[in-house]
Amino acid sequence: MYHRDPQQLVGVVGLEIHAQISSNTKLFSGSSVQFLAPPNSLVSFFDASLPGTLPVLNRRCVEAAVMTGLALNCTINRRSLFDRKHYFYADLPAGYQITQQRRPVAVDGMLTYSVLGGKKRNQVIRKNVHIKQIQLEQDSGKSLHDDVHSQTLIDLNRAGVGLMELVMEPDMSCGEEAAAAVRELQLILQALGTCQGNMSEGQLRVDANVSVHKPGEPLGIRTEVKNINSIRYLARAIDFEIQRQTDVVQRGGTVQNETRAYDSKSGETVAMRDKEGLQDYRFMPEPNLPPLIVFEDNASLPAGIDACQAVVVQTIKEGLPELPSIKRDRLVQLYGILPEHSFTLVNEDGLMEYFEEVMKSTKREPRKVIGWVTNELLGLLKQQELSVSQSPVVPAALAELLELQEAGHISSSVSKQVFQEMWRSPGRTAAQIIREQDLGLVSDAAELHRICQKVVDSHPEEVCAIRSGNKKVLNKLMGLVQKETKGRADPVLVREILEEKTS
Amino acid sequence: MLKVSAFHALRSVSLESIGISFALLTNNVYSVSTKRCRLRGLQSRTLDVIRLFSSNQHNPKVPKVPTWESVAEEQLPPPTKIPVDLVDKLERLALVDFRTKQGLECLEKAIRFADQLHVVDTSGVEPMDSVLEDRALYLRDDTVTEGDCAEELLKLSKNTVEEYFVAPPGNIPLPKREERAAILRHSEF
């Protein structure tokens, strides 16, 4: 989004992301982490904040935070501290949340993401978002509001689950950028295995801080937008809020510093009630936890330390899996496809695997195959809101179709037809459909000669034009031949024959 | 001198058997008149036990007389005045009740007492959070070892609905000062 007019207000967007750590147990207790379970069945005495209980840090959560920090090019703090953030709410049994406000485990990173821009939206534009910090903290329980009986039901299963809070600097300017950044983060976290990133299940929660200002001037008052449950809603909520604030400012009003909730039904943000002014969390050091130390490498380990008591950054770095950006580069290198194609492949769940599966069973060039996967296949999937794994056409079937086309049994326009047919009736192979509907290429020379002759004879003006130098008219004749043959004529042969006949 | 020998004597011998009447002058708690010594043996035996738990000899690390000196007023920073809205804010954030003027004065005295720390020169010293901060933080394995005690936990709550804890619909605003005073008028504090 470029605003040439310097007087035009632009949006400023910063994201606060809470990623639920994928682990067996909670951050400070040994109770299980599961999405659906009977209420309060995954709660230990510590999670319920019963007196006399103490937090015991889960090593897996530390490793997850370090891994995520490394993948996002952060500096890992060798020594980080835990603090208490106090506020009262029924789903926070202790009355405080253990977090890392003063010195978190990772700081100062960068998330690189891409948006598709340019006139045809096929140019890959790389952008960066600065990550201020990544900190470990506890999740709260879940409140279910029962308005009928004017009460709230509390389920503490989620209380104490480990979260990584990623704080991003306000480097983005619109919903599209935020959505792309979050998508990239999702892919990274999923590749690392540190978070499953499912927004609808609450594994990845995004709050947006939005303000508007004129470029060059100080930042405007920001509002916090919450209750965003998908990447699509994220983009919409941010764009709505930017527009709302722009309208307020242009009318001469002032934007209130408040928290707003996104209502997906109306597509609008609404002010949240029950916000008692600026919160004072009275941060204090967590007295029950000494500082968290992570070690640079094996050489820096103190003598006699138990291996399971040490988190070693070097070891984790060496064990990092292939990140999405590397994956994209590898696909471009390996298959010679364009960056925007590899972007699409990695962006859609399972599409890259589908493509590679097809490539295994066909001898066609990747550049010829990629179009089928990113256009034909993906187009139909999107239209019918299916995931790649739900595709009625499996990679092997598509490969077969492409082989038939390559071998000259069908023309390219017919192959698209066949694909549609395969989609409609899964289980029927390309070969079957071609046979049944008699879509095979007509390569019978005699037959083709006959049809071409017929066309040539009935269009003397065109033949004259071609003979006097206007070669383009040949295409018209070709079109007529294809019409006769219902698109089944081998175009290469037809062209040869027509050229011969009109020379 | 007499006092010291009396302490020694009390190690294993009951007051009665000594037959000496004296007053223990450490502090009010231990001051005992002769009359009391002759009371039932139980009481003196109790006293005996208390004495047994204290150091046998005078611990050399403990000064015999108090050694602290009050810090001069001039050395302290200006006294902190706590504005009324700060009191209200603290009462709301921490759910404590300063109740009366006396409570506030108590707070101010406590702050004054802590102000003495400002006399200490901490330049170049790394701040400390806790005396245990150089201990290793224990890291637990990621295996399930607890939970599955919903019934036990729910028993602790007066109000439950189908395995959920019940809470009011949102935070109840703190009652106003006058209302609180009425609610708490029978409180012993």
Keyphrases for this structure?
heterodimer, A: 503 residues, alpha+beta, Arc Repressor Mutant, subunit A, 3 domains, nine-stranded mixed β-sheet, three-stranded antiparallel β-sheet, 15 helices, elongated, B: 189 residues, mainly alpha, two-stranded antiparallel ribbon, 3 strands, 36% helix, 4% strand
Outline of chain B, from the CA principal axes?
extended
Report the total helices of chain A. 15
Biggest interface, residues from each chain? A-B, 56 and 40 residues
- Please give the order of strands in the largest beta sheet of chain A: 3-7-8-11-1-12-13-14-15
Please, what is the oligomeric state? Answer: heterodimer
Number of strands of chain B: 3
Q: Beta-strand level of the residues of chain B, as a percent range? A: under 5%
Count of individual helical segments of chain B = 8
Number of E strands of chain A:
17
Distance between the termini of chain B: 43 Å
Separation of termini of chain A? 54 Å
pLDDT under 50 segments of chain A (min length 5)? none
The major β-sheet of chain A equals: 9 strands, mixed
Described by the principal axes of the CA atoms, the overall outline of chain A is elongated
Major beta sheet, strand line-up of chain B? 2-3
Q: Report the mean per-residue pLDDT of chain B as an integer.
A: 74
Number of domains of chain A: 3
Q: What integer is the average pLDDT of chain A? A: 89
Largest sheet of chain B: 2 strands, antiparallel
> Structural class, from secondary structure content of chain B?
mainly alpha
Q: Which runs of chain B of at least 5 residues are low in confidence (pLDDT < 50)?
A: 1-50
